[in-house]
Amino acid sequence: MSLHAVRLGLRRPAASLARTYSAFTQKQVDPQLDGYPQLPNESRQSLPAHGWWDFQMRRNFGDTMHECEEMYSMWGPDTPHVLPATALNHFAIAFSGFVAFGLFCKYALVPDRPAVPRQYPFDGLVKELGGIEENKANVESSEEDD
């Protein structure tokens, strides 16, 4: 690979192919927990349904509750079964389908006009109707007429 190809953007150098992430070597301890165990952030809905002391909540007797139990319990928000990018793609397809159906109804299903608009001779009978100035609306004045 030549330096000229790298400058033109035809090939990227090997150093830019590897991504670098800042990784922590130790799990950071939350100072607000004060010794309470830091449990993994995993919803109870993703755990298997059988093998628990409490089948409904998917817990065993004496299990330590998560610090955010209201978020990760069975009664918390549902975990998505579809990735957000896939859901956005499905939404875009459905929206474009509705738009296409609307445009089809507007342009393909609406019949043509049954009559042709009337055409007047002599520039639309401007002279016969009194001219353009005579057909303008009266301008109202801001002063009250007595």
Envelope shape: elongated
Q: Extract low-pLDDT stretches.
A: none
SSE topology string: HHHHH
**How many strand units?**
0
Any idea what the radius of gyration is? 36 Å
Major β-sheet profile: none
Distance between the termini: 92 Å
**SSE class:** mainly alpha
Mean pLDDT: 78
Share of helix, binned: 25-40%
Q: What is the percentage of strand-forming residues?
A: under 5%
Helical element count?
5
Can you describe this structure in just a few lines?
The protein is mainly alpha-helical. The protein has five helices and no strands.
Features:
single chain; 146 residues; mainly alpha; 5 helices
Can you describe this structure?
This protein is mainly α and 146 residues long. 29% of the residues lie in helices and 0% in strands. The protein is built from 5 helices and no strands. It is elongated and about 100 Å long. The N and C termini lie far apart (92 Å). The mean pLDDT is 78.
Strand-helix topology:
Blueprint: H1 3-8, H2 14-17, H3 69-72, H4 84-107, H5 121-125
